[in-house]
Write a structure and sequence with these properties.
By secondary structure, the chain is an alpha+beta fold. The chain folds into 3 domains: 204 residues, Phosphoenolpyruvate Carboxykinase, domain 1; 273 residues, Phosphoenolpyruvate Carboxykinase, domain 3, CATH 3.90.228.20; 78 residues, Phosphoenolpyruvate Carboxykinase, domain 2 (Beta Complex). The strands form 6 sheets. Strands 1, 4, 5, 6, 7, 8, 9, 10 and 11 form a 9-stranded mixed sheet that branches. The chain is globular, with a radius of gyration of 24 Å. The structure holds guanosine-5'-triphosphate, sulfopyruvate and manganese (II) ion. The site of sulfopyruvate has 9 residues, from helix 7 and helix 8.
Length: 605
């Protein structure tokens, strides 16, 4: 075994015995050539990018067009989260529930010992200490990820608060979530590395909720590999949150300010690639209204002393969907991508810039996400549909000043939504908290390219947490209901929204993007005691006149259609399908949700 130094030259504060022992154990299992403790410095980042350039993992973009930015092309077999290969290893299968892949922890540990043995041979093992949430915040949590991927180090540097300060904070023997990651591609003596090492045969993303540990093998992409994100901040955190009485959710956080300068804070849970980043930083089409961003993907919510729910964004950056992003759809995102970004699986132009579908008119000639020449005649997509940018939150021109407030922001409204071409109205307000939990439990959406597999098919994605809940989804609902019963709680109002209704020709009926501010305005009015609306069997819905459509080219007829509740199809199609969705949870389904369903049926009949 090669000699290893536990301390690189720049780090001398590794005094946390538990981390040192843990790192030594992982190193003796995975056999890296060297160990590098990340301090998060600029010098270290320069070294990591240099390494990626030399290895062909990254190419620098034209510094005159896109300063300090890089394009990375992944292996075509490693382009999205692998839900099939994602496991929850709680003690008993019932704790993981019917919507998770459960594995027995002991057997899985044995399997992992086998997979990880020698997995980092020929590579450097990076140790990344990090904080999820503003360090020192009562709501923040610490983690340490080891990885053999420089790309992951670069990503974690943008997405989390990592490096020397985090390590110093951990030195007080604080708890941390243990994150072990390898691309599963050891190098033998003298073997040359490849640009995107991964393991084509074996991939697994494994969670041990009770142990607070994550083991991920074989993939270098996004949520499979940046373990702070979905693995920690959602799957492990949701388990912790349930035990401790708070919520870890797949939600954006935004600040909405009215022309009268009154602000409210909103969170919104939409499934992957269903519009969180876009809503989080939208430029309202309505005059005088302002949206500012606090987070675009994950919210941790705790009760404050005043009984309100306060949210923090545990992340420090955005790992956002590139295709569809343009100066018309999301100008703030375009501005934040002007420099200091990593782009993964987008196309590149002849002058060394990036391009993706719908950014603007396609250039005549491009290099596509696989590195092949692409011309406008080409039928295939130039950027992969799940191509992403990685960028620091501080690059966002619409970032709210409270974005890293350790106390979080008090939430007035929680939105649930998905991609539904039919039936689900543009917006609907829950009658009360438990009805809101019901609306969250029946979120369904057409599948997107954010996860491997066929896109377009409709699936239930309760609370937008189907792939991200670290325990039984039925228990998650029970936890939400329990949250609602807290003494003195000043609960947010809950809404279901749907920007994705289509006509028979397959075109979107609602213009979406900046026009969603019109719906936000109605929600603001409801939250501040003004907005109109009428009761329907599924909740409170605005009259077409309650939605400000000034300056918008949309017919009264389309507005009617978007806000209509088609009682027949709710009764004869939606209700039976909800029943079927609920049936898989058996006795674990909270009785209150069974009642909510019966009451809905009664109101429809
Ligand atoms: P994840 O990062 O996977 O969690 O996705 P997300 O929920 O943040 O979705 P994002 O905002 O990145 O949007 C995904 C895709 O949906 C992009 O291609 C957007 O252009 C598109 N999209 C976002 N908002 C709207 C909208 O209001 N209407 C329509 N038609 N498309 C939208
Ligand atoms: C999602 O799929 O919801 C994402 C991207 O935000 S990933 O980090 O890959 O999970
Ligand atoms: Mn997401």
């Amino acid at each position: 075994m090669p000699t290893m130094s536990l301390k690189n030259k720049d780090t001398n504060s590794v005094t946390h015995q538990k981390i040192i022992e843990w790192v030594e154990n992982i190193a003796s299992l995975t056999q890296p050539d060297t160990i590098h403790w990340c301090d998060g410095s600029d010098k270290e980042a320069a070294h990591i990018y240099d390494l990626m350039l030399r290895n062909g993992t990254a190419t620098q973009l034209n510094p005159n067009l896109r300063p300090n930015s890089y394009i990375v092309r992944s292996d075509p077999s490693d382009v999205a989260r692998s839900e099939e290969k994602t496991f929850i290893c709680s003690r008993r299968p019932e704790e993981a529930g019917p919507t998770n892949n459960w594995r027995e922890p002991k057997a899985m540990h044995q399997h992992l010992q086998h997979l990880f043995a020698g997995a980092m041979h020929g590579r450097t093992m990076y140790v990344i200490p990090f904080s999820m949430g503003p360090m020192g915040s009562k709501m923040a949590r610490m983690g340490v990820q080891v990885t053999d991927s420089p790309y992951v180090v670069a990503g974690m540097r943008i997405m989390t608060r990592m490096g020397a300060p985090a390590l110093e904070y951990l030195a007080d023997n604080r708890d941390f979530v243990a994150c072990i990651h390898s691309v599963g591609c050891p190098l033998s003596e003298g073997q040359k590395d490849i640009p995107w090492p991964c393991n084509q045969q074996d991939k697994c993303i494994v969670h041990f909720p009770e142990e607070r540990a994550i083991w991920s093998y074989g993939s270098g992409y996004g949520g499979n590999a940046l373990l702070a994100k979905k693995c920690f901040a959602l799957r492990i955190a949701s388990h912790i949150a349930r035990n401790e009485g708070w919520l870890a959710e797949h939600m954006l956080i935004l600040k909405l300010t009215s022309p009268q300068n009154k602000a409210i804070y909103i969170t919104a849970a939409f499934p992957s690639a269903c519009g969180k980043t876009n809503l989080a930083m939208l430029e309202p089409s309505l005059n005088g209204w302002k949206v500012e961003c606090i987070g675009d993907d994950i919210a941790w919510m705790h009760f404050g002393e005043d009984g309100r729910l306060y949210a923090i964004n545990p992340e420090a950056g955005f790992f956002g969907v590139a295709p569809g992003t343009s100066m018309t759809s999301n100008p703030n995102a375009m501005r934040m991508l002007n420099s200091n970004c990593i782009f993964t699986n987008v196309a590149t132009t002849e002058n060394g810039d990036v391009w993706w579908e719908k950014m603007n008119a396609p250039p005549k000639k491009l290099t596509d996400w696989r590195g092949n020449t692409w011309t406008a005649k080409n039928e295939s997509q130039a950027a992969h549909p799940n191509a992403r940018f990685t960028v620091a939150a501080t690059q966002c021109p619409a970032l709210a000043k409270e974005w890293d407030d350790p106390r979080g922001v008090p939430i007035s409204a929680i939105l649930f939504g998905g991609r539904r071409a039919t039936r689900t109205p543009l917006v609907c307000e829950a009658l009360n908290w438990s009805h809101g939990v019901f609306l969250g439990s029946i979120v369904s959406s057409e599948k997107t390219a954010a996860a491997e597999g066929k896109t377009g098919s409709l699936r239930y994605d309760p609370m937008a947490m189907l792939p991200f809940c670290g325990y039984n989804m039925a228990d998650h609902w029970a936890h939400w209901l329990h949250i609602g019963k807290r003494k003195g709680a000043q609960l947010p109002k809950i809404y279901a929204v749907n920007w994705f209704r289509k006509n028979k020709a397959g075109n979107f009926l609602w213009p979406g993007f900046s026009e969603n501010s019109r719906v936000l305005k109605w929600i603001f009015e409801r939250c501040t005691g003004q907005g109109g609306g009428h009761n329907t069997p599924i909740g409170t819905i605005p009259d077409p006149s309650n939605i400000d459509i000034s300056g918008l080219n949309i017919t009264e007829e389309i507005m009617q259609h978007l806000l209509k509740v088609d009682v027949d199809s709710w009764l004869h199609e939606e209700i039976p399908s909800i029943r079927q969705h609920y049936a898989q949870f058996g006795d674990d389904l909270p009785a209150e949700l069974t009642s909510e369903l019966s009451e809905l049926q009664a109101r429809l009949s």
